[in-house]
Amino acid sequence: MDRGAALNAGRTLITDGHVLTMDPALGELRSADILIENGSIRAVGPALDAPGADVIDASSMIVMPGFVDTHRHTWQTAVRHCYADLDPPQYFAEMLGPVGAAYSPEDVRVGTLVGALSALDAGITTLVDWAHCMNTPDHADAAVDALAESGIRAVFAHGWPLAPEWTRDSALPHPADLRRLRDCYFSSPDQLLTLAMAARGPEMARPEVWLGDLRLARDLGIRTTVHVGAYPHNARHRAVAQLRDAGVLGPDLTFVHCSRSATDEIAMIADAGGSISLGVHCELNSAGMGDIPLDRILAAGLRPSLSGDTETKCSGDMFTQMRLLLAYYRSWTGGGHSLVPEPPFLGVRDVLEFATLAGARAAGLDGQTGSLSPGKQADLILIRATDLNLAPVTDPAAAVVLAAHPGNVDTVMVGGRPVKRGGRLLAAGLPAVLELAEQSRRRVLATIATQRVTRR
Ligand SMILES: [Zn+2]
Fold it and tell me: Are 68 and 359 in contact (CB under 8 A)?
């Protein structure tokens, strides 16, 4: 499999697509072209002139930016759906306990690789890999290696080793390996991978620790992402309020879930220019986590981003997140459950924005991706409008949000480089990768079985 870092040096013209640019200034264009040069979008509009360019006929396609997933524990992909019917506390006790602690660098590598490849297959071109299985520096190297090999644009959010002393009133500062990783892998601005800190924050670490962690991230010039407000025992910390009181809230912070975060805390995130990531399917699937606070988020003026969270309990594709969020919101607000007196309207185009442009902002990459705007990288997908579940298309945005699925994704480009064409992922060696994933699955399931017997 090639390394995926090289950008397409040529010119490509995508012609006659129904283009959902997600760029507020450009809007939606029927029968428009997109000219790509050296991996970037050069122009978007009708009947572009581009002699000598490779042409991709998109006359039967919906063309839009690739999706941006802002929080996924990609390392867990080899044991997809193994917590489907188990309560969340069991997932936390096992996967984020002895099972995760027993993950080898190879388990992290293959899980991350399969997760990133399947994200690409589903039209996700940017992934925030929320890597909290950083048991050793070798585990971090393995995750970075897998992300690079996949060809996806990724934010590698580096976390901590899975042992109780790191997450329960922890006195341990974020692993110093973060600095080595920055110097080793992330020194060039012209690459698909960027670095972030997956931080523990006030719900897991002592004040001097989370303050020091945040200082380290800012010292290194990287963003920080942190889980807050999921389940009552976490919400009680009022983590966002603690950060605000310490004077360290800022636009470089992305808060994951916020399910039970207080309304004043959501307003604090908005005031500081911060962002929120909703792992919709997992949030709806996890008893006790709390309601998705989208009404309160929108009322605060925030535009959330979306994520696949953990595939041990849900689907990772963005179509699922969009569709469930819209249905949930309408059921919730229409059912009179909202805590907001007049909940804002939510339409399919809002949800599409959350899955693209708002995601790019939360990843700190809105200058590069998230919309089909001239000057940005050509991260885009073509969805077959002629497939039986979509045709005939009346409203392309509605078709994507309400009915499309990964099987409708015909073409995926990252930085102008095709990674999926004609409905087929182009990565070489897929059967071998899946075989490695199967071996990892068996190892991890054996660990799960052993530690369940030990705990009895
Ligand atoms: Zn998470």
Answer: yes
